[in-house]
Each structure stands twice: as C-alpha cells, then as structure tokens.
Amino acid sequence: MRLDSKDKRTLSVGRLKSSFRFAGNGLKWACLEPNLRIHIAAGAFVSAAGFIFSLTRIEWCIIILVMAGMMALEIVNTAIEKTVDLVTEEYKPLAGMAKDLAAGAVLLYACAAVVIGLFIFIPKL
C-alpha cells in the first residue's frame, strides 16, 4: 500500500494543535449533554466533601481517577449514541442493543464509583 505525503503520520506542531482543538470541541459538545452535567455536579459535590473530610493524597488520586473515568465513559457513551443515531433513524434491534450496552457500561461504572466513594467516606463520618 502506497502512502502519499499527506497520509504520512508525522508529528507537527500544527497537527498537534489541531488535535487539541478537536478534543476541546469534543469537551464543549459533551458539556451540553444533561447526563454529563449530572456527573459534573456529582463530582463537584464529592470534591467539596473531599475538602471537608481532608482526604489524603492517595484518596484524592482515587477520587480523581474515578470521577475522570466516569465522565470519560459518559462521553464515550454519548459518542456511541450519536453514531448509532447517525447511521439509522429507524428502530433496529442491534442499534438499540449497542446503545443499551453503552448505557449499561456507564451504569456499572457509576455503581462501582459509589461503592469506592463509600469505602473512602464512610470511615470519615
């Protein structure tokens, strides 16, 4: 397979800036989604509790990883939903299954996040 000069994957400042701009646009779009706003609000609440209960560095690291993971997974779920909606406007069982699976992954992670939060905060009460 022959690669043209424009197809070569070379690192350039312009390409890097574009990548960050696209990622920033993605975050802006994500912040318009109601479910992500719920996760942001929950993260703000947990962060406030973290300051009140003087979490240790390792506890903060765990909380930050869990919150970032939750938000990232919600963004991936939204991307899957938007892609499925783009591909088909009519109801198709496999499209519905794809959306349900992505939402199920978010629910599973959210439940794990709550359990982790309880492990960290209950001893401090």
Explain this structure.
InterPro entries: DAGK, DAGK_sf, UDPK. The protein has a single domain, classed as Helix Hairpins. The protein has four helices and no strands.
Number-wise, the strands total: 0
What class do helices, strands and sheet pairing give? mainly alpha
CATH class, named Mainly Alpha
Q: What is the average of the pLDDT values?
A: 93
Please compute the radius of gyration using only Cα atoms: 19 Å
What name does CATH use for the topology?
Helix Hairpins
Q: How do the SSEs run, as a string of H and E?
A: HHHH
Q: End-to-end distance, in Å?
A: 63 Å
Shape assignment? flat
- The stretches of 5 or more residues where confidence is low (pLDDT under 50) are none
Which percent band covers the strand fraction?
Answer: under 5%
Number of helices: 4
What descriptive keywords fit this protein?
about 120 residues; mainly alpha; Helix Hairpins; about 80% helix; about 0% strand; flat
In short:
The protein has 125 residues and is mainly alpha-helical.
Secondary structure layout plus pairing:
Elements: H1 13-31, H2 34-52, H3 57-87, H4 93-121
